Every structure is written in structure tokens, then in C-alpha cells.
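Holo prediction — alpha-D-galactopyranose.
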Amino acid sequence: MIKNIPPMGWNTWNTFAENINEELILRSADTMIATGLKDAGYEYVVIDDCWALKERDGKGRLVPDPAKFPHGMKYVADYIHKLGLKFGMYSCAGLMTCAGYPSSFDREFLDAETFAEWGVDFLKYDYCFKPASVDGTTLYRRMGLALAKCGRDILFSACSWGADETHRWIGTTGANMWRSTGDIVDTWDSVKDLIKKQYDILPYGGMGCFNDMDMLIVGMHGKGHVGLKGCTEEEYRLHFAAWCLLGSPLMIGCDIRNMDEATQKILTNQTLIGIQQDARGLRPYIVKQWGNDDLPMIVRYLENGDIALGFFNLSEGPAGFWITADDLGVPTISGRTLTGEEAYTGQSLCSKNGVLTVDVRPHSCAVYRLRIVK
Ligand code: GLA
């Protein structure tokens, strides 16, 4: 079933890549409960690539690697479900998965049935090794149909990285979210690049088929598969806030069993999650300060008439942002003002003579849930 709000969860890839096993999955699921991530809204525990044996069984079915998953996938699913969480898995539309494991090409219906039997609730579907004979649109439609027929409600998470103009056709496939860009890595440049790549495709996201900006790197601090340089605390805060305001799914990518307090605080920020999970699921829009791509203000209208507004300084120098209430759809003549508190610091902001002004440090952001008051 299509959900009108972007999903939240945890995924193995960013930190663990092929180093996955049952113990890691079960302990991470436990951690989602113990650390309050579940209470904050995180729901899916997703096993990414590298879970299968390289060969299918005699009946042509995918087989979990017994060295990694000794009790099979149904066991993992049951454990996760008992915790009140949901279970996600991974496959690929091309001839192999990106890491060279068996894919679902030409076996879409059989694999969807297998996933349903195992109790899978979410399928991330990658795009590596696409055969030349079939176009990507058809491949994603096939899996969309197979999931619709498999007898279980499985959320379809397309991962074709925006290739082949994904935005033009993804809405026909039944996908609930679609990777709009290439893979994230744990650096400031990657965060900045992924945000800027959204500008032109925002009109294609939201409303039950969300632009997936890729898994979060918050709290990775340079460790794990996409670890690289790491980011500062302030950059991680900006990263998380941008994903929330832009309505991206939130799939945590760090090792949550060992996350520090600062990471936990960012990942459970209620104001930001409230914006990301807003029931109206509306698309955000961007206003660029001075027309500068490095100074986006991201705006999202919310169900109760509040306005989410984020000032993002992607540049290398300090920035003085300003925007009028009029620009945000609230004319001065209405006698209304805009007021709210910053999501991380609680600092208040109020429109003065119809103008909102905020100073923001480089690589930093300020995000408000503004109320319209008489
Ligand atoms: C692609 C995807 C990643 C991850 C890997 C797994 O690169 O974009 O998110 O799933 O494949 O091999």
C-alpha cells in the first residue's frame, strides 16, 4: 500500500556493506527500542546487499547465506516483528546485485512471493547490471506488479539513482520512494551535492512517491563502508535537517549500537521528524537567497497550517538570510505574523514588519516550524 509519509528506518549498507549477519540485525533491532529510535518513528530494519548465497536453490529460489543467517530470514522477520518493527530486504532489477549477488531479473514474481513468505515489509530494489534488452521502466514496473500480487503489503523502495530520467516514470511503478541521486559518502561535499541535486527534481517528489536522498551518514564519523572523512557535528545537523525538510525518507546508516549521545539527539529531533512525517506529505519548495545555489531556504507547508522554513548555509562564509512573510504566502495586510523556535537550539524567531532575518554560520542551518498568529 502506498504511504503518504516518507518511511523511516535503519539500513546496513553505509556502515557494514558485506559484513552483515543475524546477530548484527537482531542487536540493531533491539537498539532501536532501547535508544528510543522506535519511539521517535524509525520503523524499518533493512538488510541491504550481500545477504544471499551466490546460487539459487533447486526450485530457483533465493537462499540466505547460512553462515550469515543460520536461522533463515523468517526467523529474523519474526524477531523484528515481535519488537513492533518492520523488516526490509534488498534485491536488484539487473543481472546481478551491485555487489555481485543474485538479482531478481526475470524472477520478479517468484522472488516477491519468497519475500512475502519470509515476512518482508520493505524491498529496496537496485539497478546495477541492467540488461540491454529491457528498459528500466519495464523492470521497475515488473517488480511493482509482482509486489502487488505477492499477497503481502511490501513497501517498494526503488534505487535507480535518478538514472534514465527515473523521475519521469517512477510514479507509474508503485514505488513509494525512489533514489534520486548516486550514493552518499560520509563527507560534507557529498551532503552539499545531494542537496543541490534536489533543486530541479523537487516537483517530482512527495505525495506517496518520495525523493530518496540516500541513507543518512549522521554519526558515522568516518567509520564504516562509506565512512571517508566524516563530517562535523554541525554538518551532520544540517544534513539531517535538510533530509527532513526536503521530505526524504530517513534511513539511518551508522552503527546504532555504538552511537554517541549527540548522534542520538540529532536522529530523534522531534521538531524535524514532525516536519518530515507531516501527514499532509506536501512537496517542499526552495527560495535561493540572492539567487545563490549555496544559500537555499527550504519551505514546506504543514497539515495544521504551520510553515516549516529552513535557512541552509552551504557556502564557506557567513550568511545573512532574509525572507518576507509575503513571500511565504502571508501578506502583511492580513495582520498576521510568523513566529517559531529553532529546531536544535530552541531560539525564537518572529517576523518584524513582515520580514524574517537570520544569520547562519558556514556549513550550518537554522530551521523553524513557524506558526501564523494574529
Ligand atoms: C548501490 C546502492 C547502494 C547499496 C549498494 C549495494 O550502490 O545505491 O545504496 O545498496 O548498491 O551493493
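READOUT: Residues 13, 48-49, 97-99, 126, 159, 161, 183 surround alpha-D-galactopyranose (CB under 6 Å).
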